[in-house]
Specification:
With 556 residues, this protein is mostly beta strands. The chain has three helices and 48 strands. The chain folds into three domains: 73 residues, no CATH class; 274 residues, Pectate Lyase C-like, CATH 2.160.20; 98 residues. The longest helix is centred in the first third of the chain and has 13 residues.
Length: 556
């Protein structure tokens, strides 16, 4: 049986080595039977057929001495195991500098992977990723914890303003712990920090190094215009700053990442970022803080945003999804905001965003006056989805499904709303909430459909108080003298809302309809002949608080 040394490539022994063909050749290393997961050195094995680079990890099925080894193939180019360079998987000795050394070594070899095996690693300095580096672990069993007073990002991308930035990096398969309570400065104490040039800066030096002449690279607007980074299968928690933060041009893809228990925002992405299957939970500020354009969120969830907000803090930042600060042109699809301290979805000074098939569930857990979907000084946005409270009688239910405030116009809203009701605060049963009378004008100029405004309802009997939110068109078969009022639920009606009645006389005819003057302004003479149909349409006038007759058709 051949005695292989783990620090040498098999070719050093003059053997044409193929571990798939000769697994028994690897039974011992330096006279010892290998354990499960033994790394066969810091080297590459090149397959003659595919020319692909590989790192071989030998092991045994049960971990018992003497068992036949099995092998795991990790495709990589210049894959470096940080433990082979001295990283401590017990977390006793700091390993940040060693990981950075491994990254530098990978770059010297022509870029590639840096592999952090399962274990706990103490990070005393920011891990800095340069171009074309993939930093990955063994899933959540790879655990990186920030050292006390690190006061800096745990992982960041290389960036020198006006000169060079790192591009095409990848981070995956590990867990980050920012050691939140032992950081003295939260300003930049993020979990992962992506940075790059802003405006129209181009990475001139980077392009020159890639072979482009200066006159070309000076104004080059090609593949390096955006950084084009990827992050997936990550759990980022307990950071004193944000879980994920990005500045500058992006082109970033983030998949299957959770940011939880961070003091700042869960995710604060920059331009041209795609987030898929991402979760923000129990962060101090908003789960997803959208302040730039062209950000795509798919199947993302924010819950308990604002959980760590101290008393007296402006918890307006505690929304689940917060579109803010002149942001524009982002898309959210199939996203959910649940149990956040403020509103589920908030738009402030935002325009041109589109949210489809989204759910706002039982938010307003602390703020006291927050709603499901909130617009403030925002225009040209679209929101479709569901707003509901799942607990009957919860004091902290969402005040209402929708609020329009201060210069919000040209927004399109289509919401199905369900509120169980609350005896403590009857106002919470309102479907549409305006905080002050002066803000009533904010709802004008918006297209709003809540709870079937454009749908239908059918009524029988001789007395009823229908609500427009149960269906904007009422079909009513008359059987006698009929009284019509309006449901006084406290729901605020958008100005200009249409409410249409279709009355059918029975075979007897002569059925009179009496309108409650407190609710309706009416001037019509219907045809009460047997089996005739009369229609009347009202438009809501918020100035006088009444439905005003706007169209009729009689004797149909």
């Amino acid at each position: 049986m051949t005695d292989w040394r783990a620090d040498k490539h098999p070719s050093h022994y003059g053997v044409n080595f193929n571990p798939h063909e000769h697994p028994d050749e690897l039974m011992t290393v330096d006279g010892h039977t290998m354990r499960n997961g033994t790394i066969l050195g810091q080297y590459l094995d090149v397959d003659d057929n595919s020319q692909s680079s590989r790192l071989w990890i030998a092991g045994v099925n049960s971990g018992v001495y003497g068992d036949t080894p099995t092998f795991q193939e990790i495709p990589a180019q210049n894959c470096i195991n940080v433990q082979s360079m001295g990283a401590d998987p017990t977390g006793v000795v700091a390993s940040g500098a060693i990981i950075n050394k491994a990254i530098a070594e990978a770059i010297a070899r022509g870029y590639g992977r840096v592999y952090i095996p399962a274990g706990q690693y103490l990070i005393e300095e920011s891990i800095v990723l340069d171009s074309l580096i993939w930093l990955h672990g063994d899933g959540y069993s790879t655990y990186l914890r920030a050292k006390t007073n690190l006061n800096a990002p745990m992982i960041e991308t290389f960036y020198t303003p006006l000169t060079r930035f790192g591009y095409m990096q990848r981070i995956s398969d590990m867990r980050l712990d920012g050691n939140r309570d032992n950081q003295s400065d939260a300003t930049n104490a993020h979990g992962v920090y992506f940075q790059g040039p802003t405006g129209e800066q181009t990475p001139v030096l980077e392009l020159e190094l890639a072979g482009y002449p200066y006159e070309v690279s000076e104004n080059y607007d090609g593949q390096w215009f955006d950084a084009n980074r990827t992050m997936f299968n990550m759990f980022i928690s307990y950071c004193a700053g944000d879980g994920f933060r990005a500045i500058g041009r992006s082109g970033t893809h983030i998949h299957n990442v959770t940011c939880q228990e961070n003091q700042g925002f869960g995710f604060w992405p920059n331009y041209d970022t795609s987030l898929v299957n991402c979760t923000a939970g129990r962060n101090g500020k908003a789960g997803f803080y959208i302040t730039n354009s062209a950000i795509h969120l798919t199947n993302c969830k924010a819950w308990w945003s604002g959980y760590r907000v101290p008393d007296g803090y402006d918890i307006i930042y505690s929304h689940g999804f917060y579109f803010f600060d002149n942001s524009r042109g982002s898309i959210a699809v199939n996203c959910e905001a649940q149990d956040n301290w403020s509103s589920g979805f908030a738009f402030e000074k935002a325009y041109g965003h589109a949210c489809y098939n989204c759910v706002s569930d039982s938010n307003n857990q602390r703020h006291g006056s927050s709603v499901g979907v909130d617009f403030w000084d925002s225009y040209g946005n679209t929101f479709t989805g569901i707003v509901y409270d799942r607990y009957r009688g919860n004091v902290r239910d969402q005040v209402s499904a929708l609020r329009m405030r201060q210069n919000s116009t040209m927004n399109r809203v289509d919401i199905q709303h369900r509120h169980y009701g609350n005896s403590v605060d009857a106002a919470k049963q309102a479907i549409l909430h305006i905080s002050t009378d002066s803000e009533m004008s904010s709802i004008e100029g918006n297209e709003i459909n809540i709870n079937n405004l454009r749908g239908t309802q059918r009524i029988t009997g001789t007395s009823a108080s229908p609500s427009v939110f149960h269906g904007g068109t009422v079909f009513w078969s008359l059987t006698g003298t009929t009284s019509v009022s309006y449901e006084s639920s406290g729901a605020i009606i958008p100005p200009g809302t249409k409410f249409k009645f279709v009355f059918l006389q029975d075979g007897t005819g002569g059925r009179v309809v009496n309108w409650n003057a407190s609710n309706y302004l009416v001037n019509w003479t219907p045809d009460t002949t047997a089996n005739k149909i009369n229609t009347i349409e009202f438009t809501y006038n918020n100035t006088i608080g009444k439905w005003v007759q706007s169209a009729v058709a009689t004797g149909i």
